DNA sequence: TAAAATTTGTAAACCGTTTTAAAAAAATGT
DNA sequence: ACATTTTTTTAAAACGGTTTACAAATTTTA
């Protein structure tokens, strides 16, 4: 009871050698049926569970993938995580999840931990920064999803991502179609996706024949109070009648501010869809990402790289679905 | 490049023995400063990272805790996970997270995986069912949080949980105080917390001098359409002017149904607080759990059990905070 | 029935690290 | 300078599995 049984204990109890137990439990064909059954029952009875550390060190693979997400409180990433877990599970792989809270230090820690635990491959939604992933990862395969590494750093990895430019362009165009004449944007300053979404915003204004107004275009997020202040700035001072919000977490602060301001005619749009947007008193135009497909693609490609390390890196762009409410 | 460096490579490159490298990198005092520095630079230069599987098998601990949650899409559990990760990190422990999607099969798989990976202890929010945790876990310490194992199964483990009875009683009493005269309940049928919340509901009615009406009291959840149907049943057919909702996920379905029904005078309350409840057109009375404190307690106790396996199991009841809006 | 082919079991090597015990080197005391 | 103590380093033995090479047992073939 106080010590975990090892393969040795099972072998002794079953009256066979350790190697036989190993073969029996891994369903090797080179063992008599009667023997296998005997070993199996003894193992069950002892509650024997092979030590995967010992196995991993010998066979040099763990059938485990690492997944690094920047914000476990963000619904988008939890949904993505779930889909990736599912897809990996279907292929017999388990997933180690670590959250970095958008911190580079935590990301480095998570990456190190996973490599030390000898994951077979890692899935990264980057926290940004100038990390040299190739140097850290060494020969371990990896793939990026949603949050890419900075563009100035060369990476030999696959990238799976939604077409942010196109989707944002659609959303903003929709706001205009719904009657907005002056659309502002609140965007997160740093991330890879933010840059693309800004481009989509600009594209939509251009397509709509609307001159860019630098006063309403640039908006960097630093903290929550900042967002509320910017909301006021854009909607009251700048008199915007349309607003595009760059992501989930910013949207929450915007909505909070909107409960104070009385602006029934504002046309609101944002990236990432949430279930509860349906319950709000005001319709929001959103981009719903094909999360299941993203997850499946990520896992398929990573496993393909495990099977063939020579596989050339590639970028996958999927289309988001635009949700208009009323 | 194509092979990961081992301690042997470092030893050879530094011109010392493997044992010395091991000591140097683990900051053992039994190594000369000059030697340590030399080893360190060689290790850095080779991008050497110790194989934690190999270490784990030798030292018989991994400094890793496993955490099993029943629903990664449920905000409550992601918040709890984050707090537990933080608390564990402060004590030098890492956390392996696995999601069971409320499935007993996945829970069993997750538990097995963690034990095979030799986690030092496991934190469980149970998916219910009649699992004999003590048998599965063997000598590995564990602790339960929020979702307890079924009451008829004896477990030698700590339990950390909010006082569901008291909190629910408060919420329902508040609904009554706000003018409700006939309060219904929609509860999840199976879980441990559901039973307690039902008791709290009954208590509040009793305290308010209101007779129990079996027609509105019992409500089991099976699937989503079921919830919407029950909402209609209680609010229209049974003419309830107050409603208590047993958890997060049920609340979403109730709110969806409420967008169809025109019931401005309904007094609504539910367990678990969400940020976005603030943005809804209707105020909701909720119980906000002391998640940070729950997480810290869980980790503290689990680590205490690691240090002293003899420590007697204990139950910790924390109070939830009742949030009334307007 | 002997020889060959096949199946099954055994012992030993191996994976990468830590640790124990012993040896080597350096420091101290006389 | 030599004996003794102290500090560093090393070689070898774990840790718990898997796998390989090989021997033994069994079955098939001649």
Description:
- The structure is a homodimer of 326-residue chains.
- Chain A is an alpha/beta fold.
- Chain A folds into 3 domains: 7-50, lambda repressor-like DNA-binding domains (434 Repressor (Amino-terminal Domain), Orthogonal Bundle); 62-163 and 291-319, Response regulator (Rossmann fold), CATH 3.40.50; 164-288, Rossmann fold, CATH 3.40.50.2300.
- Chain A contains 13 helices and 11 strands.
- Chain A has a 6-stranded parallel β-sheet with strand order 2-1-3-4-5-10. In chain A, strands 6-7-8-9-11 form a 5-stranded mixed β-sheet, with helices on both faces.
- In chain A, β7 (242-245), α12 and β8 form a beta-alpha-beta unit.
- In chain A, α1 (7-14) packs across α3, α5 packs across α13 (291-307) and α8 crosses α9.
- The interface between A and B is large, with 50 and 50 residues.
List keywords for this structure.
homodimer; 326 residues; alpha/beta; 434 Repressor (Amino-terminal Domain); Rossmann fold; 3 domains; six-stranded parallel β-sheet; five-stranded mixed β-sheet; DNA-binding
Give the arrangement of secondary structure elements.
Two copies of one chain form a homodimer.
Chain A: H1 7-14, H2 18-25, H3 33-46, H4 52-59, E1 64-69, H5 75-90, E2 94-99, H6 104-116, E3 121-124, H7 133-137, E4 142-145, E5 158-162, H8 164-177, E6 183-186, H9 192-207, H10 214-217, H11 224-237, E7 242-245, H12 248-258, E8 267-271, E9 284-288, H13 291-307, E10 315-318, E11 321-323
Helix pairs in contact in A: 1-2, 1-3, 2-3, 5-13, 8-9, 11-12
Chain A binds a DNA duplex (30 and 30 nucleotides) through residues 6-8, 16-20, 22-23, 26, 30-32, 35, 50-60.
């Amino acid at each position: 009871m106080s010590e975990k049984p090892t393969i040795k204990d099972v072998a002794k109890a079953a009256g066979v050698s350790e190697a036989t137990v190993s073969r029996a439990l891994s369903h090797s064909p080179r063992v008599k049926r009667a023997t296998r059954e005997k070993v199996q029952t003894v193992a069950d009875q002892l509650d024997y569970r092979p030590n995967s550390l010992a196995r991993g060190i010998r066979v040099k693979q763990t059938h485990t993938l690492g997944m690094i997400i920047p914000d476990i409180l963000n619904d988008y990433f939890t949904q993505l995580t779930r889909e990736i877990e599912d897809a990996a599970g279907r292929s017999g792989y388990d997933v180690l999840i670590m959250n970095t809270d958008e911190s580079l230090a935590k990301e480095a820690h998570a990456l190190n931990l996973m490599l030390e635990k000898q994951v077979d491959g890692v899935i990264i939604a980057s926290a940004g920064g100038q990390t040299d992933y190739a140097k850290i990862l060494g020969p371990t395969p990896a793939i990026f999803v949603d949050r890419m590494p900075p563009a100035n750093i060369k990476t030999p990895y696959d990238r799976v991502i939604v077409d942010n430019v196109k989707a944002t362009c659609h959303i903003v165009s929709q706001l205009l179609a719904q009657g907005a004449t002056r659309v502002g944007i609140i965007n997160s300053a740093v991330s890879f996706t933010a840059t693309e979404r800004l481009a989509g915003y600009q594209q939509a204004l251009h397509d709509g024949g609307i001159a860019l107004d630098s006063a309403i275009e640039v908006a960097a997020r630093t903290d929550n109070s900042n967002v509320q202040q910017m909301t006021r700035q854009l909607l009251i001072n700048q008199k915007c009648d349309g607003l595009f919000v760059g992501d989930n977490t910013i949207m929450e602060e915007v909505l909070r501010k909107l409960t104070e301001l009385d602006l029934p005619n504002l046309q609101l749009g944002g990236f990432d869809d949430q279930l509860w947007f349906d319950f709000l008193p005001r319709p929001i135009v959103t981009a719903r990402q094909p999360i299941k497909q993203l997850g499946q693609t990520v896992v398929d490609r990573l496993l393909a790289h495990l099977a063939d390390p020579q596989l050339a890196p590639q970028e996958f762009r999927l289309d988001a679905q635009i949700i208009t409410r009323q």
